[in-house]
Amino acid sequence: MFKKNFDEIILICIIVVLAPLLIYYNVFENVYTITRVYEKYNFDELFVIFLSMLIAVAFYALKKYSDLKNIKKELTLIHETDTLTSLKNRNAFLNYDEEKYKYVVLLNIIDFSVFNKYLGFEKADKLLVLIAQELQRIIKENLNEELFRIYGDEFAFYSNEINIKHALRRIRLLFEKRNFILDDYEFTVHLNFAYSSCFPKYLTAVSALHFARNSIEKSIYKYTEDIAIQHNSLKMLDALKKGFSQKNIIPVYQAIYDNKSKSIYKYEALARIKQNDTLLTPDCFIDVAKKFKLYHKITKDIIEHSFNDFKDTSDEFSINLSYIDIINEGTNTYIFKMLNAYPNVAKRLTIEFLETENIMDYNVLLKFTEQIRAFGTKVALDDFGSGYSNWNNILKLRPDFIKIDGSLIQNLLNNKDNINLIKLIVQFSKMNNIKTVAEYVDNEELAKLINILGIDYSQGYLYAQPQERHLIWK
């Protein structure tokens, strides 16, 4: 009660103390004299009380004003500060005038959800604080700019650097050389970068970062009109419709290498939309295709093109299917129609199941697997290690291959936790006669470790980029 009404109590005390003081110093008599002179205006002794109240209210108002200024300052600081990293937050970032800067730069940590999953949120937050501190230091030393945490694993800063791409490459190189130690474990962290000079700079940079997040390669993306088009749902819907009518939804093929024989074992078919000399990747159109119920048409086109491409070769290849492909009656019927029509192709085909953690009914998948095995078709599970909790279902499925999740592979070097997990996966696979494939292998050091761990096959930019058929079989 006392704390709540502290200012009002002080006001009363001032009045109680000030009124006698004014009387003691004959203020009353002086005022009385004045009131007699100006008696016609009804001045009297109450003027003393009024004067003391006036002075007290003035002091009260000044204190309140000071308190409000301090509270406003504190609230602004709280409102514009990230509580975890102590960096300024998105609110503070958006209060800046972006027109004063040439670029808005956004960056995010690649697959930070993996750290959340395997470390737990509390330890992952500690790692995020270490990352934020190191990023702030590097950006301050190299560009003299302030780093902001937008949300989650996403950060931002403004820059007037002339050669921004060169500067961002340097920042990424310096950062990714740094290993982060937490609970005696070392972690290597990778970054996506995106930047924009097009108004509104923040929103266009967001589009570029979305593109970077979904890209299969680690790079630094500048916002361009092409990126804008690729993330415009209506324009992408039009691109899909033209792709279907003009047969421009095509597969590209990425080689998968045998780590023992050092040769190509097979090719994976990956969907693209061909627009003149440009190949649009699935991150641009898959969400739109699902939204407008066109996903099944993409699957059919990729199957048709792939079977035609491989019918006159002896190479092995794989096609990706999701659970929604399997439960779609039209797609399911078409798959078995093609397996029946091309028995020699079916024997060289591997079907990779995507997003297996989202399967509602495993019995449907088991039945489908038994049916395709009758044609000699093999089975693979994609992104193994990222979302599979029921290993018993995997044993029931008896896959021929499991593809180890790329986020585990990319964070393998100097990461004891990931190395131990990969060892467990490899051991489990060998015991059950399952071949293993490492995704996103992009450097020699990583390739050597993968061989040491006993993984059977590798796929990534170190070996081959996805290419159209005519560029592979010239």
Explained architecture:
The chain is α/β, with parallel strands linked by helices and about 475 residues long. It has three domains: about 5-80; about 90-230, Alpha-Beta Plaits; about 230-470, TIM Barrel. Helices cover about 55% and strands about 20% of the residues. It has helices spanning about 5-25, 25-35, 45-80, 90-95, 110-120, 120-145, 165-175, 200-215, 225-230, 235-245, 280-290, 295-310, 325, 330-340, 345, 360-375, 390-395, 405-410, 415-430, 445-455, 470, and strands at about 90, 105-110, 150, 155-160, 180, 185-190, 190-195, 220, 250-260, 265-275, 280, 315-320, 350-355, 380-385, 400-405, 435-440, 455-460. The strands form three sheets. The protein has an eight-stranded mixed barrel with strand order 9-10-12-13-14-15-16-17, surrounded by four helices. Helix 6 packs across helix 7. The termini are far apart.
